């Protein structure tokens, strides 16, 4: 088997910190754990060129080298028997197909409803990954997940239809060329209406990895931009959130950290995250828009309609959905305090330089006028006398005889 036969995948930010075997379960679900372990023992499975084991933790940006699909075929000697997935019912197929809002030869975009997990786990049987057979359509292979949304987060979810597209989209997410826009309702109104939250995030001790928190000492870098779209007094605000990194629960942790938890997010906001007056207790976090380069050229730019509870909350608060659609996508974020300070220093320096040049020019112009007196020359300053010093005696001419 030559090096050209191997497949290469880039680790996305959504997979930062997970075990290697968990990555296979997410992105190559047809590859069993036994096969992954066999590849690791034989040295065929490598991360950034180094031999790896299924239990190794991977980091966003790393490159995973995997043997070709034929190496995991069940008809090969010694290959494990492939597990058959249960066939979908007509109701399940109809359900997943009704979620499709974009489809082409390389990708499918779903509008994931809140309450539906992206992948399976403990006591989680119904999830998007289990329903992907229902949207294979005329494709040659089963669609593949390339990123995730939390169970209670709704909105845009991109699915790759080919192995090539899966690698391409995963690289776009890991290199941050993909643009994701979220809408959220938050408790209270930030004092700064357009700001950036730059706080590292890590797993909260004692939570079994199920909960994250701001960890200045050992957390991974995380950055989120937010913009206030509209406000309802001082109680609630509708915001646009743009993650510049992809940490687990990043948007939820960051908004709670600045004192404005997402409405309905009891996990990070506690009881304070729930509003009265007819506002739903469901989480109000929605992946509104995704813009990503397409493997065949051009780009995918798609928006997902709000779930019912979110749309009703906006209406109840008197917010106009059109205002969110009018937010410009590519405006640069506001400068940080350090940048503002440096800009102020540079501005003051330029002002001083300009004033100095003006004074010099005025002197030159005055000297050039007819009948103008020449500028006075400054008299040389006398040398300071040393206290107590006596003047040196004058030398007398020597007399020759």
TrEMBL record:
Q: Where is the signal peptide?
A: none
Is Glycosyltransferase a UniProt keyword of this protein?
A: no
- Catalysed reaction(s)? uridine(1911/1915/1917) in 23S rRNA = pseudouridine(1911/1915/1917) in 23S rRNA
Q: Which residues form a coiled coil?
A: none
Q: Where is this region: Disordered?
A: 68-88, 325-401
Q: What is its EC number?
A: 5.4.99.23
Would I find Isomerase among this entry's keywords?
A: yes
Which spans does this entry mark as compositional bias, Basic residues? Answer: 338-354
The record ties this protein, via SUPFAM superfamilies, to: Alpha-L RNA-binding motif, Pseudouridine synthase
Biased-composition ranges, Low complexity, are 366-375
Q: Which PROSITE patterns has this protein been placed in?
A: PSI_RLU (PS01129), S4 (PS50889)
Domain Pseudouridine synthase RsuA/RluA-like: start-end pairs: 108-257
Instruction: Provide this UniProt record's keywords sorted from A to Z.
Output: Isomerase, RNA-binding
GO MF annotations in UniProt = isomerase activity
Family the entry assigns:
Belongs to the pseudouridine synthase RluA family.
The record, for PANTHER family, names:
MITOCHONDRIAL RNA PSEUDOURIDINE SYNTHASE, RIBOSOMAL LARGE SUBUNIT PSEUDOURIDINE SYNTHASE D
User: What protein am I looking at?
Assistant: Ribosomal large subunit pseudouridine synthase D
Per the UniProt record, the source organism is Sphingomonas hylomeconis
């Amino acid at each position: 088997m030559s090096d050209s036969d191997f497949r290469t995948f880039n680790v996305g930010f959504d997979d930062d910190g997970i075990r290697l075997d968990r990555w296979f379960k997410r992105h190559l679900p047809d590859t069993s754990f036994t096969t992954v372990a066999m590849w690791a023992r034989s040295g065929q499975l490598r991360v950034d060129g180094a031999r790896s084991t299924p239990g190794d933790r991977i980091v966003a940006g790393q490159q995973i080298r995997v043997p070709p699909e034929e190496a995991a075929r069940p008809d090969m000697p010694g290959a494990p028997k492939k597990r058959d997935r249960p066939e979908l019912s007509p109701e399940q197929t109809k359900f997943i197909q009704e979620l499709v809002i974009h489809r082409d030869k390389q990708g499918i975009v779903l509008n994931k409803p809140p309450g539906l997990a992206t992948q399976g786990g403990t006591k989680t049987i119904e999830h998007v990954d289990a329903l992907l057979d229902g949207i294979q359509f005329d494709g040659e292979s089963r669609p593949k997940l390339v990123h995730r949304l939390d169970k209670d987060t709704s909105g845009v979810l991109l699915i790759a239809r080919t192995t090539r597209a899966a690698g391409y989209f995963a690289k776009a997410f890991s290199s941050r060329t993909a643009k994701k826009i979220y809408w959220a309702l938050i408790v209270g109104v930030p004092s700064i209406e357009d700001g950036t939250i730059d706080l590292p995030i890590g797993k909260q001790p004692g939570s079994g990895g199920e909960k994250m928190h701001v960890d200045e000492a050992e957390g991974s870098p995380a950055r989120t931009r937010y913009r206030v779209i509209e406000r309802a007094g001082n109680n609630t605000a509708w915001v646009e959130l743009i993650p510049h990194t992809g940490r687990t629960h990043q948007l939820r942790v960051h908004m709670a950290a600045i004192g404005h938890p997402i409405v309905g997010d009891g996990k990070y906001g506690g009881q304070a995250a729930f509003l009265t007056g007819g506002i739903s207790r469901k989480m109000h976090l929605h992946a509104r828009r995704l813009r990503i380069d397409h493997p065949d050229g051009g780009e995918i730019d798609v928006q997902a309609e709000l779930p019912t509870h979110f749309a009703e909350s906006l209406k109840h608060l008197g917010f106009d959905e059109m205002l969110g659609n009018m937010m410009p996508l590519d405006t640069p974020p506001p400068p940080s305090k350090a940048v503002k300070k440096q800009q102020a220093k540079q501005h003051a320096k330029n002002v001083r330089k300009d004033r100095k040049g003006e004074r010099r020019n005025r002197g030159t112009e005055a000297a050039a006028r007819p009948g103008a007196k020449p500028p006075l020359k400054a008299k040389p300053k006398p040398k300071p006398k040393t206290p107590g010093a006596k003047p040196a005696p004058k030398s007398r001419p020597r007399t020759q005889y």
